[in-house]
Design brief:
252 residues; alpha/beta; Rossmann fold; 6 helices; PAPS/APS_Rdtase
């Protein structure tokens, strides 16, 4: 008789003593960076995808009461859990304003006229066209007339981000771009979340360490690459929606 071995899904990492000890200098540096960004730019936004990294940044901004606008892209294809979580986050940080941007109806109509949605699984160009209509164009509107934006990107997230600088010039949007968590580890991010009792996206409890749109995200096994569940049918080096794939140059 063959024995059934259950698949162990990815789990939220526990915080170790070593990670707890490493947090204070990281937090001090993060808060200094965010304060400097807010001082240098009067029109700066945080693009919050509701991922755990962006919640670290949101919490720090709230703690410091910085005048940094927070934007969220509602693509129209988010999990219902994500929309419920957004409501929880808004209530938890009720003194912050979350500006929600959605796709233009005409953009969605143009995509649906040209493509069958299921073609995203067969064609990279179609998938990216979907991402453009649902993410990139709304982001362009959100960043219009801004002087800087902040992201939760980290170098260890994927091969396409290994050279990620903490500060860069985004030539596509013609403004500065900051990645304050670039050198943070996955474990350090979660240690911060645990230390500050930040509400956790429910899908993290279902084996999804990287959460995007519902059709393009699935749970992963423990030990798999953290972004293995995003666009899982594509090669590792194409797993970007285009939000962060624009030409940039590092700033010292």
């Amino acid at each position: 008789m063959s024995s059934f071995i259950p698949i162990q899904l990815w789990q939220i990492p526990p915080t170790t003593i070593t990670q707890s000890v490493s947090l204070p200098p990281l937090i001090q540096n993060l808060e200094q960076q965010l304060s400097q960004i807010a001082q240098q730019h009067k029109k700066v936004v945080l693009a919050n995808s509701l991922a755990v990294e962006d919640m670290v940044l949101t919490h720090a901004i709230a703690q410091l009461q910085l005048p940094i606008e927070i934007i969220v892209l509602d693509t129209g294809k988010l999990h219902t859990e994500a929309l419920s979580y957004l409501d929880i986050v808004k209530k938890h940080y009720d003194h912050l304003t979350f500006a929600v941007y959605q796709p233009l109806p005409q953009s969605l109509q143009d995509f649906e006229t040209t493509h069958d949605f299921l073609d995203i699984y067969q064609s990279l160009s179609v998938r990216k066209a979907c991402c453009f209509a649902r993410k990139i164009e709304p982001l362009q509107r959100a960043l219009a007339h801004k002087t800087a934006w902040i992201t939760g990107q980290r170098r260890e997230q994927s091969p396409t981000r290994q050279q990620l600088p903490q500060r860069e010039w985004d030539t596509a949007h013609n403004l500065e771009k900051f990645n304050p968590l670039a050198d943070w580890t996955h474990e350090q991010v979660w240690a911060y979340i645990h230390a500050h009792s930040i509400p956790i996206h429910p899908l993290y409890h279902h084996g999804m360490p990287s959460i995007g749109c519902e059709p393009c995200t699935k749970p992963i096994r423990q030990g798999e690459d953290l972004r293995a569940g995003r666009w899982w049918w594509e090669s590792q080096d194409s797993k970007e929606c285009g939000l962060h794939a624009n030409p940039t140059s590092s700033l010292s």
